[in-house]
């Protein structure tokens, strides 16, 4: 997928049966040509800041998983060390754009509280997913040097 297609796939798929982490991992798996119906389920516990516990944004958690998969497939020169460096770069880019990497810091909501969960701005989250998808694609694309 091109960058625009990857971002659209992720942003469009978010909330359509998949949470933030699940859609990023699914798209990343497809981009890396890794296919399994288990892939989105492996990311389910990361939805909404790790099961709504105010932790790292699920889109970022999904991207971290994809970078780990890429390293495991030897798609990243430098393997694990490169994955760690790419994760740090991704987190820095996200933090610079949005001011936080934690779901609570981004939304100001305790998603364990049904009333607060109901106030969640899904379009705001879609922007987090889109940004993360674009940055992830760029990281994978830079490694491949020709597109993923």
Please describe what this structure looks like.
It is a single chain. With 148 residues, the protein is an all-alpha fold. The chain has one domain. It is 67% helix and 0% strand. It has nine helices and no strands. Helix 2 runs parallel beside helix 9 (122-144).
Layout of secondary structure:
Layout: H1 3-13, H2 20-31, H3 39-42, H4 47-50, H5 58-72, H6 79-98, H7 103-107, H8 114-118, H9 122-144
Helix pairs in contact: 1-2, 1-9, 2-5, 2-9, 5-6, 5-9, 6-9
Q: Secondary-structure element order, as H and E?
A: HHHHHHHHH
The general outline is globular
Beta strand %: under 5%
* Overall pLDDT confidence: 91
What's the gyration radius in Å? 14 Å
Number of H/I helices: 9
């Amino acid at each position: 997928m091109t960058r625009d297609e990857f971002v659209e796939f992720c942003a469009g798929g978010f909330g359509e049966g998949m949470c933030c982490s699940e859609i990023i991992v699914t798209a990343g798996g497809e981009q890396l040509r890794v296919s399994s119906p288990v892939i989105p389920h492996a990311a389910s516990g990361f939805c909404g800041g790790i099961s709504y516990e105010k932790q790292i944004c699920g889109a970022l958690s999904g991207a971290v998983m994809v970078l780990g998969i890429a390293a495991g497939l030897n798609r990243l020169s430098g393997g694990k060390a490169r994955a760690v460096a790419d994760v740090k770069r991704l987190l820095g880019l996200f933090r610079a754009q949005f001011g936080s990497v934690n779901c609570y810091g981004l939304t100001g909501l305790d998603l364990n509280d049904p009333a607060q969960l109901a106030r969640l701005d899904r379009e705001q989250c879609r922007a987090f997913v889109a940004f993360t998808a674009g940055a992830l694609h760029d990281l994978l694309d830079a490694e491949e040097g020709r597109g993923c």
